[in-house]
Amino acid sequence: MKKFEKKLIEELDGVTPDLKSEIKAKAGITAAKPVNVKNKTRIRRILAPVAAALAVLIAVITPVFVLNPDGGKVNGYSLVMSVNPSVQIDYGTDNRVISARGLNKDGVMLLYRNDIVGQDVKTVTQTLFMRMNALGYLGQGGNVNITVKDDKGAFNEEQFKIISDDVCAYLKNAGSGKSVMRMTEEDFEKLEDDIEEREREYLSAFEEEIKSLLSENATAAETLADEIRAAFAAAYPDINVSDSDALEDAAEDDETPLSDGALTAKIKEYGKLYDDDIAEDYDFAEGAFRMCDLFEIYEDLCDALREIRVAEQDVVNGRIPDDLDDMIEIIIKRRVSV
Fold first, then answer.
1. What are the Cα distances from residue 265, in Å, to 193, 225, 304?
2. What's the Rg (C-alpha) of the chain?
3. I need a surface site. Which of 225, 265, 277, 291 has the fewest CB within 10 A?
4. 10 Å Cβ neighbour count for 265?
5. Cα–Cα distance between 294 and 62 in angstroms, integer?
């Protein structure tokens, strides 16, 4: 990942606040809370191409101003959008979110830990489109179903046209095969009925997926760490490789090329499976990857394993792991690729 790409994503993270305890009570509903910025674990964020990300930003800024061209008060309204993640966002008279909910399983996950209540239209639209784009939803075929209702529950033709025209323009620029369609009342009612009946089921299933991913990641990290220690034991038979200080003294300046191609392949596969950039800065060509590089990867892997264990305890104790958003992205990426 290039530095400017990381910087872009870090800046966008600033508009994505953490999950509220209220979400535990009702899946997909968000409420206001101050942002709590913490260090992320080694499970890394999935990124769409930067050009596509910038296209999203350009596409979603236009509706923000035309919804309220005079900058004054507007009547409250609701935007309902289904791309597969189905969400409903209710705005007040100041064009700020007063409530939001996922209307299906993917919608619950899309809003999970994203506290958007109180945010303005520009910020919310930017956040959701960036997120859906990064998760691959906007690149698939099918329709983007949208409806906009005023504060009396009536369909708002003008608002719908403004939003749908801009979404169409974005989809075209992004090379998406999707079309924008007006969501029927029947489809909206089905979404509402489904989420009211199954929201707890969706939340529980999602939490089980998080636990399973953490367990799988921990096992993979432990296995890879054991294999790296075995490589160190073979290279440094006179030291105890479990002694981190002794291992550091022996390996950190050792520029001997690592000849074990199978081990380097496993390192790259681990990074791919868990979206961890553990190996992205290294050249694995024959003779280019050295024992000192392996030692740095080993240190990172040990850090990752400790953080995974902390996240597992957070889940067991009912707390939200700091890196939950990254895990959601891994889960959805895997679904899309199946």
1. 48, 14, 19
2. 23
3. 265
4. 11
5. 49
Q: Which of 91, 183, 181 is nearest to 142 (CA)?
A: 181
Residue 179 — φ and ψ, nearest 5°?
-120, 150
CA–CA gap between residue 120 and residue 124 (Å, rounded): 6
Measured in degrees and rounded to the nearest 5, phi and psi for residue 283 equal: -95, 115
Query: Backbone phi, then psi, for 18, in 5-degree steps?
Result: -80, 165
The amino acid occupying position 179 is S
Please answer whether residues 40 and 322 qualify as being in contact, where contact means their C-beta atoms are separated by less than 8 angstroms.
yes
Q: Are 326 and 275 in contact (CB under 8 A)?
A: yes
**pLDDT tens digits along 129-179:** 777 877 778 776 788 899 998 888 889 888 788 778 877 877 777 677 888
Q: What global pTM score does this model have?
A: 0.63
- Burial pattern 205-231, b for ≥16 Cβ within 10 A else e, equals ebeebbeebbeebbebbeebbeebeeb
For 86, phi then psi, to 5°, come to: -110, 125
Q: Are the beta carbons of 135 and 127 closer than 8 angstroms?
A: no
* pLDDT classification of 337: cutoffs 50, 70, 90: low
- DSSP assignment letter at 98: E
With pLDDT > 90 as the criterion, what percentage of the chain qualifies? 31
How many CB atoms within 10 Å of residue 172?
A: 11
Residues 6+ apart with CB under 8 A from 7: none
Question: Helical H runs in 138-286?
Answer: 157-173, 185-235, 244-251, 261-273
Contact status, residue 142 vs residue 180, Cβ threshold 8 Å:
no
Least Cα distance to 140 among 102, 171, 108, 107 occurs for 171
Cα 197 to Cα 96, 173, 202, distances in angstroms: 28, 38, 10
- Other CB atoms within 10 A of residue 52 CB: 19
Can you tell me whether residue 52 is helix, strand or coil? helix
Contact 323/113 with Cβ under 8 angstroms? no
